[in-house]
Amino acid sequence: MKQYNKLTDETDLQTQRLREKWGGSPYPSRCFQCCRNTAAMPISEVEGHDLKEGLKKLPQEVKTHILKKATRSIRKLEQLGHSDEEMAIPMGLEPTDALRGKWEGECPMLVGGMCSVYDHRPLIRRVWGYPIDNGNELGCCHMTFIGQLRLFKPY
Question: What are the domain boundaries of the chain?
C-alpha cells in the first residue's frame, strides 16, 4: 500500500500541475457522465483494497445504498451471461461494455452526483478527463478542456 499511495500522491501532484497550467479541471464542474459507465470497470487488487478502506469510512446508510447499486449491476451482468468467476478476473472491458448506457452501468460509488470515495478512487479515475496520447492519437472525453483542446500538448 505504501508504494500505491506514493503513486497516487504523484498522480495527484501531476494532475494538480495540469489544472494550474490550464486554469482548472479538464471537464466541467459537477460532470460525472463518465461515471455512468464504470460499474464493471476492472481495477487492480491494490486499488480494490484502497476502495475498501474508503468504504469503511462512509456512514452505514451510504454503504447500504452502494451495496444495492453494486448488487443490481452484478445481477444485470449475470443476466447477460457473465459469471461471478469471470467478473473476479480482469477480463478487459467486456462487462463494462455490457452495461454501457444502462442504469446498472453507473458506478456504485456515485451517490447524489458525487464520488463517495473520491480520496480512494482508482488511478484511472484520477486521470480520467485529461487527454492521453496513446502513441496513435490524442484521446479524451469531448468535454475535456472545452475550447482549448487544440492547444493541449500531452506530456
Answer: 25-151
